[in-house]
Amino acid sequence: MVSAPGLPHPETPDYDVVGVGLGPFNLSLAALADGLPGLRAAFFEQAPAFTWHPGLLLEGTTLQVPFLADLVTLIDPTSPWSFLSYLRAHDRLFRFYLYERFHIPRREYDAYCRWVADGLHSTHFGTRVDAVRWHPDAGLFRLVVTQTAPPAAPAHGEPPADHAGAWSTRVVTARHLVLGIGTEPATPPAFAGVESDRVFHSAHYRQRRASLAELSHITVVGSGQSGAEVFADLVRNQRTAAQHLTWITRTPAFAPMEYSKLGLEQFTPDYVRYFHGLAQGRKDALVPAQWQLYKGIDADTIAEIYDLLYERTIDGGDEAVTLLPGVSVQSTSLDGERGEIALACRHRDQDRTFALTTDAVVLATGYAARRPALLDPVAGLLRLDDGGRFQIDARYRIATDPSVTGHLYVQNAELHTHGIGAPDLGLGAWRAAVILDDLTGGHAYRLPPPSAFTTFGAPPQAGGYHHAPRTAATAATATGHGGPGGAAARPAAEGGGRREPDGAVEGASDRGVRRRQPVMLGEADR
């Protein structure tokens, strides 16, 4: 880095970029950054090890996106951190070949991510970021980092020198940050303040389902994929007709997820760019109207539930279930003596209220974005919209006060600015590549040209549309210089969705399979 004449030499940061949180999206960024020599990156996660929706890793459940939506493949199919590389490292390639499925088990996706997390040098678990501060004199973020658990013995050898030895709290500096802290289970207002072991979120279902076995009445609230999988699991394990299951949802039907090929083009970079360019009021109206794209149920899960109930009712058998679409829970109360849970419900179309008494409630009510306390020291420097949400540009950067020259990127906190693709695993690698491209001044990865068959928005020529072939040449994006985070501004169309709730390790010899040219930093960073 070169300082201007007459100014003190700027402080050299510990890292070019630090990622806070290690879910699939920041893990994707870490895996792709691993192929960029010269980019100094570190990723901190307070949990002791990687985990992805452990409460929903049920037998027989699969991802809702193809295995190509792993951490790296849609951007770099040659990466040593692809799902196919994981299969090879575990001698499972031929078994997967004969498996003949495009959608892999959730448990295997979790195992794959753990393999990548254990193999990367830049990932640090058991390490919590307590506070982030911006220091304008140095032009750096300073992070207060606390070790919450002894680091596990890494599969790739000794830990880096800067993490060796015993320490509890220290300060780490970085030029840029990426927030990937994920979401947290959302509890509807009707259940707020309810203190009962028998009312819990589906995020904890697998760990607590054994406690439901002997209860007489279990209610599932919420009809997305998580709610459907929990209900299907309860139906499969329903021991007698004496146990009754109720499934409640506000949506007007237990509806399937949109899975047509043209419909899924709303989970492409093309649609993300289009959506980001819309007025905020239009975005806010669009997202809830698209609920079947990201809150619907996999058609196979719906079919399985129906088939189970159909077979159960042969020869006049009791289905022992109640399905209630179009119903919202207004309030909840507990019967202290009998341990029952009373739900005050309303049928939305009929505007009729009724009471439901149950022994347990599983809340499959989705997840909400977090506003982490670690950002409190810089809260006054972050720009919010009229709804108190982060203003986020096309390259996933939070708008900040001009005094902040570093960039603060977000992953999966941009539903309101980038649309329903924000939590989609299929767009994770692309978003990570957009961020890395911005960090390195356009020298990270080749971003794909427009690829959707659908034209989102009005044709570019108002006076009669003439089609021009979209080629890599005509779709090339502009790049700029300025070092990590210093790319020249791109048009909105150049900016940077599907849904998910949530052995052997590749040896050092395999890590040399793919090496890129060193990252080209801008003049200010040399």
Automatic annotation (TrEMBL):
Compositional bias ranges of the Basic and acidic residues kind: 496-512
Protein's UniProt keywords contain Iron-sulfur: no
Class of this enzyme: oxidoreductase
Record-listed E.C. numbers: 1.14.13.59
Coiled coil start-end: none
Highest taxon of the lineage: Bacteria
Biased composition (Low complexity): 470-479
Swiss-Prot/TrEMBL cofactor(s): FAD
Cross-referenced Pfam families: Lys_Orn_oxgnase
Region (Disordered): 460-526
Entries under InterPro entries matching the protein: FAD/NAD-bd_sf (IPR036188), Lys/Orn_oxygenase (IPR025700)
GO molecular function, one term: L-lysine 6-monooxygenase (NADPH) activity
This protein's UniProt keywords: FAD, Flavoprotein, Monooxygenase, NADP, Oxidoreductase
Pathway annotation: Siderophore biosynthesis
Record's keyword annotation contains Glycoprotein: no
Catalytic activity: L-lysine + NADPH + O2 = N(6)-hydroxy-L-lysine + NADP(+) + H2O
Family to which the UniProt record says this protein belongs: Belongs to the lysine N(6)-hydroxylase/L-ornithine N(5)-oxygenase family.
PANTHER family the record matches: L-ORNITHINE N(5)-MONOOXYGENASE (PTHR42802:SF1), MONOOXYGENASE (PTHR42802)
Name recorded for this polypeptide: L-lysine N6-monooxygenase MbtG
Phylogenetic lineage: Bacteria, Bacillati, Actinomycetota, Actinomycetes, Frankiales
